[in-house]
Each structure stands twice: as structure tokens, then as C-alpha cells.
Amino acid sequence: MGFRTDISERQRRFGDELRRLRNAAGLSAAEIGDLLGMKGPAVSHTEAGRLGLNLERLTLWLDTCGVTDPDYRSGLVAMCQSNGKGWWSEYRPHVVPESLDLAEFEATSTSFGSYQTHLIPGLLQTKAYSEVILGYTERKVEFRGRRQQLITTESAPPFHAVIHEAALHMAYGGPAVMREQLSHLIEMARLPHITIQILPFDCTVYASTDTAFLLMHGPHTRLDTVLLENPHGPTFLGDPEAVATFRRKFDRLKGMALPSLDASTPGPSLTHRDSWGMIQHIRYKLLGR
């Protein structure tokens, strides 16, 4: 098997998991290579995502490192055997590799936690809003629309978004586009698996993060992934300690944000301040613009 020239984020993450397991077991690359019938350099290339691993060797690797959790094992097997192809493959010429990696991770995620500061989360954007954000690039907008299908099917995974109030006031595309976008948020929040909360301007507690992120829960907590949105481009995090930090951050954000709309009720609360009362207020203000 030849070296890969283009390493996907899944392949890189799979190699990282193998390396963490080997290190935790106190084995060198040469030692585990001897057990698997691989040379030390081949082990290093596998852990870097440049070489694949067959199922027999993966099984022996996991057994040698004492991995017994069935969900974790099956998750690693799925990562190992995946060919990386899906609906996103046809968009390879039109979007950056990180977008393809994101779509692949989303396809295997069991739930999501999203925090956005100045934008509506991509999976909750209207077509008109996406067009503005993506510079009216048809195939990129279409790609985002295909991603959104993930959370609108009958078997859609839970999606929980915390959106800073600033994102509701950014008039991208003008008042009509934003009114439609805010109305769409309300309708999406009525779906039983979607929760949306607003972090208000007048929150008196520091959120401890100014960076937007997406927390994707995998088939096992050790396979959770964080996507950080940075000015220089998206960054994927899979290190357990880093992911745990963002889990805590998201729990903190949920506690600081306004209550979400109860999907079983017809509209915003009339007795206390909540996220949907704020969205409706901002939406009505846009009617006069």
C-alpha cells in the first residue's frame, strides 16, 4: 500500500487515536510493530495517517493496548474501513478540503453542540443568508444546503445551538434576509431534536471563549471532535483533554444563555424572558427597516 498524498481529517484522527493508545500502553513504535509484523517506520506512517491498516492488524493493535470498550472499538473499526466517500465527494472541486472533512465527521456524529458569536450556525442558515455569507458562490451554497439535510430528517441527531445576540443584529443581506433568517430559527426550534438558546448582550458572566466552535459527538466520547473557526481557517481538535475543555465550555454557555423555547408550546413565554422572545423582538424591529 502506497503513501497517501492527501490525508483526510478522519485518517489523521484515526492515526492519532492509535498513537495515543500505543503511548498509553507504554509501547514504542518498534515494539508494537514487532507484534503486528510491521517495521517501526510503517507504524509511524500509520499513526500519521499516511498508511492504512487492515482489520486484522487493527484488532491486534486494540487487543495489545487493552481496548475493551465495544463502542470505542467499533468506532475505530468504522474509521479504519471507511473509504471517505459520501454525498460530499461530488463537491471536491468546489469547496475546501476542510469542508469535506466536516461533512464526513457530521455524517457519523450522534449529536452536536454549536456556539456562534457573529453568524447564524451554518446548519441553521437560510439559502439567502448563506448566499451572502458564502459570496453568492452557487456550489458552496448548494453544499451547505446538503449539509443541512442532516438535521431535518426523521432520524436526525440532536442539535443544540447557543448563539450570541450579536449574530441576530448583524444585518447580513439586509432587513428582509435577516427577518427570514430569524423566522427560520423559530421554525427550526420547533423540531423536537433542535434546541436554540441566545446568549444576551447583558450577560454579566464572561463566557470564557470568543471563538465559535462546533462540538461533534462521535459513537464514543473518546471519538468526539471539536471544529474551531479561526481567521486562518477551521481547525479540528480530537485530543481528549482539549475536547473535554470545550464540553465544559459548552455546558457553561448553556447555563449562561436565555432559556430556549419549549417545543411543546406554541410560542415564546409570556411570563419570563427567553430566547424566542428576544428573537421575536429583534425580528419585529426589522419590520420597520
The geometry reads as elongated
At the fourth level of CATH, the homologous superfamily of the largest domain is Endonuclease Chain A
Report the order of strands and helices. Answer: HHHHHHEHHEHHEEEEHH
Main β-sheet, in a few words? 6 strands, mixed
Walk me through the structure.
This protein is α/β, with parallel strands linked by helices and 289 residues long. The chain has 2 domains: 9-81, 434 Repressor (Amino-terminal Domain) (Orthogonal Bundle), CATH 1.10.260.40; 95-286, Endonuclease, Chain A. 46% of the residues lie in helices and 12% in strands. The chain has helices spanning 9-24, 29-36, 40-47, 55-64, 70-81, 97-107, 127-133, 138-148, 165-169, 175-189, 240-256, 275-286; strands at 111-116, 159-164, 194-199, 213-217, 225-230, 233-237. A 6-stranded mixed beta sheet has the order 3-2-1-4-5-6, with helices on both faces. Strand 4 (213-217) and strand 5 form a beta hairpin. Helix 4 (55-64) packs antiparallel against helix 5 (70-81). The protein is elongated. The mean pLDDT is 93.
Give the helix/strand layout.
Elements: H1 9-24, H2 29-36, H3 40-47, H4 55-64, H5 70-81, H6 97-107, E1 111-116, H7 127-133, H8 138-148, E2 159-164, H9 165-169, H10 175-189, E3 194-199, E4 213-217, E5 225-230, E6 233-237, H11 240-256, H12 275-286
Parallel strand pairs: 1-2, 2-3
Antiparallel strand pairs: 1-4, 4-5, 5-6
